[in-house]
Amino acid sequence: MEVVVGRRPGVFVRPVGMEEGCRLQRISRTAKDPVRLRRAIVVMMSAQGQSVPDSTSLMQVSADYVRDVIHAFNERGFEALDPKWSGGRPRTISGQVREHRSHGEQNAANGAYVRWHNTRARPKTNFAPDSPIRTWTQYPGTRAA
C-alpha cells in the first residue's frame, strides 16, 4: 500500500481583468477601512502570482485568513472585500443617558449661570472679623527714607 504525501495545492485568485486590477489598485490606495485595505492587498498579491506563504509573511496574517479571503473573492467578487460587521456586545449606556447634555452644552450652561450670578452678587462684609489679616486702610503709612 502506497501512501502519497504531498503539500496543499496552491490557492490563487481567479483571473483578474485589467479593469478589476485597476479597481483593486484604487481600493488599496484610497481605502479608509483597514480590513478592506488588507483584503484588497491580499487579492492583488494573489492576482500577481504570489503564493499564500508570501502573502502571509508580507501582510503578517495567517495562511487561513489569506485562503479565506481568496476563496471569498472567487465566489463573491468585490463584495467580499467589504467587512460585514455584526453582533458584538450590546451597548451598556441606555438611550436615556445618551440624551443628556454634551460637555459643550453643559459648559455653556455653567458659564451662563456664573455670569448671571456675578451680576447679582454683592461683596461679603464682616467676613472673618477676627482675622489677623488687615485691610489696606489699616496698615501704617511708611515712607521711603
Per DSSP, what share of the residues sits in E-state strands of 2 or more residues?
A: under 5%
Distance between the termini: 121 Å
Main sheet makeup:
none
Ranges where pLDDT stays below 50 over 5 or more residues in a row are none
Q: Whole-number average pLDDT?
A: 82
| C-alpha-based Rg, rounded | 36 Å
- Give a count of the beta strands, DSSP E runs of length 2 or more: 0
Count the DSSP helices. Answer: 6
* SSE string, helices as H and strands as E: HHHHHH
Give the helix/strand class.
Answer: mainly alpha
Helix content: 40-55%
Shape summary: rod-shaped
In summary, what is this structure?
The chain is an all-alpha fold and 145 residues long. The protein has helices spanning 18-30, 34-47, 52-59, 63-76, 95-98, 103-120. The chain contains 6 helices and no strands.
